[in-house]
Write a structure and sequence with these properties.
alpha/beta; Beta-Lactamase; Glucose Oxidase, domain 1; Enzyme I, Chain A, domain 2; 4 domains; 8-stranded mixed beta sheet; 8-stranded parallel barrel; 26 helices; 22 strands; 44% helix; binds phosphoenolpyruvate; binds magnesium ion
């Protein structure tokens, strides 16, 4: 078999291993076989002892597994870990670092090839092959081992997270607090119970859940099995004229597999053992997948697809009966899942939701932004979270530090309760800032606007003294529906926003979908969505969607006169001209239809694409105002996907290039006499907000949760001091240093608790 095929097979087998030990065993056995070496072993670094422990081997004495270990700097294994690179030697025993381990029954293996197992820049262990003959492994063998060790790293990291190299699928140990790290999405702290969210018909993400009534679960299963039998029989009939009888024999196989003696019976056993029907189904299907994966016979491997297909069919029926709308959301539910989309979030009973934790995603993913607007502490990118095991478990979400504690101890809970109390006091203290202008002590005034999407944001924004809406994300009401809302429907929705703030400005962004923002009824599948069809590109290609929206906005604004229209994802002058042309047309049409004079609304351009930064003076002159979408601008300036956990730590608004770009936009927009605001997340962080004020932004727009914090920061720092901080920061070439400089300043001003509660260790 070619190397690539082998690789693929090993990765697949390791992935579907029932537990961690089995995964390691599969790895060493297959590597040894494929590379034709005498030994393959995995050594993993134990954090407590700082020693490499032999965790799996083929070729060395199996008794030494878990017994033999090497200090972190000992032997060739230690050397490989310390250098963080492969070590390839044809005469290992001659190497000064060579360390003979008698317990392993190791003979004189002369050739040695080791590859470090690295996860997020940390060494977790070393994967080693050895051979008696003196020979140097060739480049392709080295690459093979390095690739596998990169694959193994995810498995090891996950196993570590679930409990120091234990088998991954055993039930979590009782009364042991486990901690998982991710990225802070929306700040705050909450203690609550996990509710696992999973997309329908995704069998791998079905959680284990204790069956409340075993008989009922069995009855549900029987109904689902019956329904699938029925479907299969129907399919069989339908295919009668299309397939040959022997090809249709597959359907008989299906029917037999559903039998009580086959899958059906196995699932019932799992239910009797305590799992609910859907969880029991997942367990059984997973086991079959593993059994099939281990087989080399291509015919039997084919059957794997059939079992999976059947599993999905049964699941679909079980979920239909279950009806997720009937799901129980306890008070203080913490939603957890591989991925939770904005659409999934807004469909839950929001008054019961207290926090969110996801395996994928990054701080400025769209869902995280909506969570922030809703004031829900959120941690994203918790790549090790064993989601399926956590349904209905108690969690503490510390979204300041990006941490999740599972089954917290009493002491930890008490400590966090204190922190929550302190946070509440801080918020109560901020109430005083509700009605005060956002003005520095030395008289520099900026406008603070709110970002909205749901009506709840409007109420919260007003309550906290927002001076208007700086960004109304119109795609959010679109997400809540099952089709594009019509003109009248949109008019009603928009009118609520305009009315609530009149006569203050309400800035409505035209539909900004694509990228990470999909409408369920308008799916866009692209290889590279962030650089693809999104924002203004879609609406200019679909003027009918654009026109309906603009007309609805214009009609909604009749009598209020506070509408501003904002164009997302602009990358050329031509797009602005096109959009303006359509807006003009809509004004004429609505005027004619309504028989009242309609003024051209103020139109603004968003700066989200680096090309726009450099051409901003040309563009600004075509419109009435400029607003920076720093979330996307950061993504595009740094070429970092804002949703990708792996690169989340290089996505930072403190990057000197981002800061310089912002200053250019402010200066250039002012030079041509246009006001400039910012509505990305950095406007709502008190630390970055003071830099933005110093740069000269006329307005900052943020989620309602941040209005009071930012206002307090602005009212505390004199403009002159903010300016000198900015000057200092602009000389620095490193984002991390800039961030610390700004945080020192906040510390000096006694404002640190605005971004992190005092009680935090
Ligand atoms: C932005 O990109 O900064 C922005 C405000 O838009 P969104 O986050 O909705 O893409
Ligand atoms: Mg954007």
């Amino acid at each position: 078999m070619p190397m690539l095929e082998e690789l693929r097979k090993i990765v697949q087998d390791v992935d579907s291993a029932p537990n961690f030990t089995a995964a390691l065993d599969i790895m060493v056995a297959s590597v040894r076989k494929t590379m034709g070496t005498e030994v393959c072993s995995v050594y993993l670094l134990d954090d407590k002892t700082n020693r490499y422990v032999l965790m799996a081997t083929e070729g060395l004495n199996p008794e030494s597994i878990g017994v033999v270990s090497l200090a972190w700097n000992e032997g060739l294994v230690g050397l490989c870990g310390a250098r963080e690179e492969p070590i390839n030697l044809d005469n290992a025993s001659a190497h000064p670092k060579y360390h003979y381990l008698p317990e392993t029954g190791e003979e004189k293996y002369n050739s040695f090839l080791g590859a470090p197992i690295m996860h997020r820049r940390k060494v977790l262990g070393v994967l080693v092959v050895q051979q008696r003959d003196q020979r140097k492994f060739d480049e392709s063998e080295e690459a093979f081992l390095v690739t596998l060790s990169a694959q193994l790293s995810g498995v090891v990291a996950h196993a570590k997270a679930v409990g120091a190299f234990e088998t991954t699928r055993t039930a979590p140990r009782a009364n042991v607090t486990r901690m998982f790290s991710g990225i802070a999405g929306a700040t705050g702290i909450v203690i609550g119970r996990a509710v696992v969210m999973y997309p329908p018909a995704d069998i791998d993400s079905v959680p284990d859940r204790i069956a409340e009534d075993t008989d009922e679960e069995i009855a549900l299963l029987q109904q689902a099995l019956e329904a699938v039998r029925h479907d299969v029989a129907e399919l069989n009939e339908k295919m009668a004229n299309t397939l040959m009888p022997e090809e249709r024999a597959l359907f008989d196989v299906y029917l037999r597999m559903l039998d009580d003696n086959a899958l059906g019976g196995e699932i019932v056993e799992r239910i009797v053992a305590g799992n609910w029907a859907q969880g029991a189904l997942r367990e059984v299907i997973e086991e079959h997948m593993q059994a099939f994966a281990a087989m080399d016979d291509p015919y039997l491997r084919e059957r794997m697809a059939d079992v999976r297909d059947l599993g999905l069919r049964i699941l679909a029926h079980l979920q239909k009966q279950d009806g997720s709308s009937l799901r129980d959301f306890p008070e203080k539910s913490i939603l957890i899942g591989e991925e939770i989309t904005t659409a999934m979030l807004v469909e839950t009973p929001l008054d019961k939701i207290a926090g969110i934790v996801t395996v994928t995603g990054a701080a400025n993913s769209h869902m995280a932004i909506v969570a922030r607007a809703l004031g829900l502490p959120t941690v994203v990118g918790v790549s090790d979270l064993p989601v399926t095991q956590l349904d209905d478990t108690e969690l503490i979400v510390d979204a300041y530090q990006g941490r999740v504690y599972v089954q917290p101890s009493r002491q930890l809970r008490t400590r966090y309760k204190d922190i929550i109390k302190e946070e509440q006091q801080l918020v109560a203290g901020l109430e005083a800032y509700k009605d005060l202008p956002a003005e520095t002590p030395d008289g520099h005034r900026v406008a603070l606007y709110v970002n909205t999407g749901l009506m709840a944001d409007v109420a919260r924004g007003k309550e906290r003294g927002a001076e208007g809406v700086g960004l109304y994300r119109t795609e959010i009401p679109f997400m809540l529906r099952e089709r594009f809302p019509g003109e009248e429907e949109q008019r009603g929705i928009y009118r609520q926003q305009l009315e609530a703030f009149s006569p203050r400005p309400v800035t409505m962004r035209t539909l900004d979908i694509g990228g990470d923002k999909d409408l369920p009824y308008f799916p866009i599948k692209e290889d590279n969505p962030a650089l693809g069809w999104r924002g203004i590109r879609i609406t200019l290609d679909h003027p009918e969607i654009f026109m309906v929206q603009i007309r609805a906005m214009l009609k909604a604004a009749i009598g209020f006169d506070n509408l501003q229209v904002m164009l997302p994802m602009i990358s050329s002058v031509f797009e602005i001209e096109e959009a303006l042309h359509l807006i003009h047309r809509a004004v004429m049409e609505v005027q004619e239809e309504e028989g009242v004079p309609i003024a051209m609304p103020r139109v603004g351009v968003m700066v989200e694409v680096p090309a726009t930064v450099l051409q901003i003076a040309d563009m600004a002159q075509l419109v009435d105002f400029v607003s920076v979408g720093s979330n996307d601008l950061t993504q595009y300036m740094l070429a970092v996907d804002r949703n990708n956990t792996r690169v989340a730590d290089i996505y930072t608004p403190y990057h000197p290039s981002v800061l310089r770009a912002l200053q250019i936009v402010v200066d250039e927009a002012h030079r041509v006499g246009r006001p400039v605001g910012i509505c990305g997340e950095m406007a709502g962080d008190p630390a970055t907000a003071i830099l933005l004020v110093a740069m000269g932004f006329d307005s900052l727009s943020m989620s309602a949760s941040n209005l009071l914090r930012v206002r307090k920061a602005i009212r505390t720092i004199p403009f002159i001091q903010a300016r000198s901080l900015l000057e200092q920061v602009m000389q620095v070439d490193n984002a991390a240093v800039i961030k610390s400089l700004v945080e020192f300043e906040l510390e000096d001003l006694g404002l640190m608790d605005l971004i992190r509660p005092k009680n935090k260790g």
